[in-house]
């Protein structure tokens, strides 16, 4: 009970309560009949730990338990203030706790290079990596309503059997045909018109240390790099771009797929890490520009010639390296990237030109 009071105090202080009330109003005003009401609650781990260490600990280390506490608080609020007329049971509330950050401590970092993973405790971790592959956005079942198939049973109507997606669950955990009524053991059937679909996207991330493997340095330590699957759902779909580096907060999930066991991460938050590259042009580069300033093309040619010389000896694959350099110049993290590189190409080989475009 005390934890629920603290959760309410946190919601009130953080502005989450007002947002919740606004969301309730939207649902109540909506003409659409819903079986599941989804609410996002933004949680700042530092603030909540300061308010109550036990609740803070639950949020970061036992999110399922913490979600249950917030769900109960929200249900009580909806009932006492009669915020949503349609809502009948607590199961109809789907609470998703969204973290603002995690403490930057080693125990919260999930390193893709380190084995074994601790995936038995379903708690939040930070993972950093580069996106190497991505699927298109597809649909998944966010929530569904089931009723007892026996018309004589009192649970053949109402909203007692609501199933919502929980982090790490597969589609079959939400939707299956072998659920039975707890009152009369008749099979449950889904009321299809209440099915709620959400967006889902799967991304493959690789540790940024893996890029050192392509730099041609032979290290005595043998390293193994394997990509890691990250699930992006609902508001996180389309948040990532191939080739970019991201910091993901999420819950590791062990997926049993026939004979294989795969470890994945269910994302809760996606951020672009602050870029720590050089903020100015180095003296050596300035010197090179001054040396080659007598020609428009020399600087680019020298750069293409020596680019990636640790991997490819200077002077080889110049066309390819020039294309990579141009692509690097154009690659930016901004979404409103409208800058283009103008090129003047003089050649009688149209194939190279086509490849550049
Ligand atoms: Zn029944």
UniProtKB/TrEMBL annotation:
UniProt-listed Pfam families: MCMDC2_N
GO terms assigned for molecular function: ATP binding; DNA binding
Top-level taxon in the UniProt lineage: Eukaryota
Domain MCMDC2 N-terminal: 3-102
InterPro entries: MCM (IPR031327), MCMDC2_N (IPR058769), NA-bd_OB-fold (IPR012340)
GO BP annotations listed: double-strand break repair involved in meiotic recombination; late meiotic recombination nodule assembly; oogenesis; spermatogenesis; synaptonemal complex assembly
The protein, known as: Minichromosome maintenance domain containing 2
Organism: Anolis carolinensis (Green anole)
């Amino acid at each position: 009970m005390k934890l629920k009071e603290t959760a309410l105090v946190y919601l009130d202080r953080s502005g989450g309560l007002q947002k919740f009330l606004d969301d309730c109003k939207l649902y109540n005003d909506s003409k659409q009949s819903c079986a599941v009401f989804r609410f996002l609650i933004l949680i700042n781990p530092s603030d909540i730990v300061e308010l109550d260490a036990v609740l803070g600990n639950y949020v970061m280390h036992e999110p399922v338990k913490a979600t249950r506490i917030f769900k109960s608080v929200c249900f009580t609020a909806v009932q006492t203030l009669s915020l949503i007329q349609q809502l009948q049971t607590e199961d109809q509330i789907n609470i998703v706790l969204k973290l603002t950050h995690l403490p930057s401590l080693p125990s919260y970092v999930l390193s893709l290079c380190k084995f074994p993973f601790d995936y038995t405790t379903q708690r939040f971790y930070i993972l950093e990596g580069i996106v190497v592959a991505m699927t298109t956005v597809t649909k998944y079942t966010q929530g569904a309503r089931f009723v007892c198939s026996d018309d004589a049973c009192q649970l053949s109507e109402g909203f007692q059997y609501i199933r919502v997606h929980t982090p790490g669950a597969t589609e079959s955990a939400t939707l299956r045909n072998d659920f039975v009524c707890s009152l009369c053991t008749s099979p449950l059937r889904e009321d299809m018109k209440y099915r709620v679909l959400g967006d889902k996207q799967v991304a493959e991330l690789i540790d940024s240390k893996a890029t050192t493997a392509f730099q041609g340095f032979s290290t005595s330590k043998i390293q193994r790099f394997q990509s890691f699957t990250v699930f992006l759902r609902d508001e996180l779909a389309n948040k990532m771009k191939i080739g970019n580096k991201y910091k993901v907060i999420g819950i590791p999930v062990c997926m049993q797929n026939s004979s294989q066991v795969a470890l994945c991460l269910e994302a809760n938050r996606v951020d672009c890490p602050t870029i720590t590259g050089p903020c100015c042009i180095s003296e050596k580069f300035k010197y090179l520009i001054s040396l080659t300033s007598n020609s428009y093309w020399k600087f680019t040619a020298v750069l293409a010639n020596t680019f990636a010389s640790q991997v490819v000896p200077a002077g080889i694959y110049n066309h390819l390296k020039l294309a990579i350099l141009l692509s690097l110049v154009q690659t930016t993290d901004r979404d409103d990237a409208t800058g283009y590189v103008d090129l003047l190409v003089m050649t009688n080989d149209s194939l190279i030109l086509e490849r550049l475009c």
